[in-house]
Structures are given as structure tokens and as C-alpha cells.
Amino acid sequence: MDQSSRRTFLQRIGKAAVGTMALPVFGKDLGSIWETTGITSPASDEPYWELVRSQFKLAEGLHYFNNASLGASSTHIQQATNTFRNTLDGFPSRYMWGGWDEAKEEVRQKVAELCG
Fold this sequence. Notes:
Blueprint: H1 3-26, H2 28-37, H3 46-53, H4 75-90, H5 92-96, H6 101-115
């Protein structure tokens, strides 16, 4: 593999990692909100950061900066976690022994497309 191929591969992996981490929080739901609120360039203006802030249920007046080790989950992540927990509790033996095959394949295909 030559240097340009390695560089391209690493760039794709980096984009995939960032996209995968950001998608649950900044996915389709927030994208549609950006459009309706007129946010055209994420991270460049105050309305964007107000939108991000609205996704977290922190105590009034709290400014939480320690997100490198332990941090709050956004409301999107909280909802997804609760949905997963309810699914698992509803049919534990199915998901304990391989009931995720279709979902795993769907994720694998999406990651493959993203990484090229």
C-alpha cells in the first residue's frame, strides 16, 4: 500500500469514527432543526451551541467541561439506551444468543460504505 493509499484510508477511518460518534447526537433530527432555525454552518455561531445545549439535561447554571472521561449523554442517546434496554428486557434470551444478526449486518454495510 503506497503512502497516498494509506493516507486516504486513514482519512476515511477518521471520518467514519467521527461520524459514527456524532450521528446519534447530531443525526437527522438535529439536521432538520438546523434547517428550520437557519443554522447553515454548525459550530460557527451561537444558535448552533444553543441547539447542542438543548440536547442535554444538565442542572440549571451548570457548565460542564469534563467531557473527556465522564460526561452526560444527550437526550437522543438516553432515549436510544432506554429503547435498547426495553428491547433486551422484552426478550432477553433471543438477544443473548445472537438475535442481532440483521442489525449487525446493516451497521457493517453502512460502515463499509462510509469507509469506501
